[in-house]
Write a structure and sequence with these properties.
Blueprint (H helix, E strand, L loop, with lengths): L2 H13 L2 H8 L3 H15 L4 E2 L6 E2 L1 H27 L4 E6 L1 H18 L5 E6 L2 H9 L5 E6 L9 E15 L8 E2 L8 E4 L5 H12 L9 E4 L3 H9 L4 E5 H9 L3 E6 L5 E8 L6 H13 L11
Parallel strand pairs: 3-4, 3-5, 7-11, 8-9, 8-10
Antiparallel strand pairs: 1-2, 5-12, 6-10, 6-11, 6-12
Helix pairs in contact: 1-2, 1-3, 1-4, 2-3, 5-10
Length: about 300
Amino acid sequence: MKSEYLQTLVESVAVGSFSKAADNLFITQSAVSRRIKFMEDQYGCSLIDRSGPILVATDVGRIVIEKAEKILQLENELKNDIRVLSPKNGIAFCCTPSFGITYLPEIMRGFMQLKPDMLELKFSFEMPDKVVDGMLKGVYHVGVIEHNTDYNFAELDTFELPGDEVVFVSSAKLGLTEDEMPIESLASFDLYTRKEGCCSSKLLEYNLKKMDMDWSVFNRVIYYDDLHLIISSVVEGSGLAFISRSVVGKLVSEGVLRTHHVTGFDHAYKRTLVVNNAAAPTPLVDCLIGEIKGVFRPGNHFCFN
C-alpha cells in the first residue's frame, strides 16, 4: 500500500472531511475519494462512515489508521536515517506562496550562481503552520513565513526579516481613491481570496472578528487557489483582494493597483527566516541565508516602500 494512500486515510478522518483533507494534502477531492475507495476495495470493507456531517472511521478503519500511523512514522524515521548516513549535496527550502512568488526567483538565481555544483534543490510553497511543522520534522532545511501569530520554533534557529503588510487592493477602475477608509466603504464589492487557512485569510478573519463581523460583510467572496488569478481579476476591476503588499508592490508603484487600509484593522505581518541546522548542510544553508537577506538590502528593486 502506498504511503500517500495511508496518509490520505489518516488525514481524512483527522479533519472529518474529504474536501479539507484534499486542501491539506494539496490534491483534488476526487483524488482523495479515489484513494479511499481503492483502500476499501483492497481490504474488502468500509473504512470510513460517511453517513454523518463529519467523517469518522469504522471499526476496521480505526485498526487501519492505527497501523498506518505507525507505518508513516517509521517511513519518516527511515528517510531521516538515510539522510544522515547518505547526505546529498542539496537543500530543501519551503516558504509561503506570497514570499515565493515575490522573492524566490531572484533568490534561486543568485544561489545557483554561487553553488553551480549543487546536486539537488527542492522548494515548496506551504501555509505557515505547515512550513514550521516541516522544519521541526527535518523535512525542510530552510523556511520563510509571514505571520501575525507567534510560533514555538523549539530548537530551530530564527532570524527576523523586514516585515510585510496585508492591504486591500483595487483597480483604478473602481474609483476608490482613499488610502484609509472604514470597512463599510468596501462592503459593496466582491472580495477575491485564497482558500481558508492561508496567511491573508487568517489575518482578515481576525480583523473582522475584532469588529464583530464576518465574511458576509462583502458583496460576495470568490475563492481562487492561485494568486495570479486573484491579482488579474482585481486588475480587471472585478473586485478587491486582501493581499500581501510585497506581491503587488510593482503593480502599485506603476499605478495599476491602489492600496487601502481599513480603520481599526491590523495590517502588519511579521516575516521570519527559520533554519534547521541539525538537518542541513551548513555551507549551503549559510549561502542561501545570505541570498534571502540580500533581497531586503537597501536599494534592492524589491524594496517598494
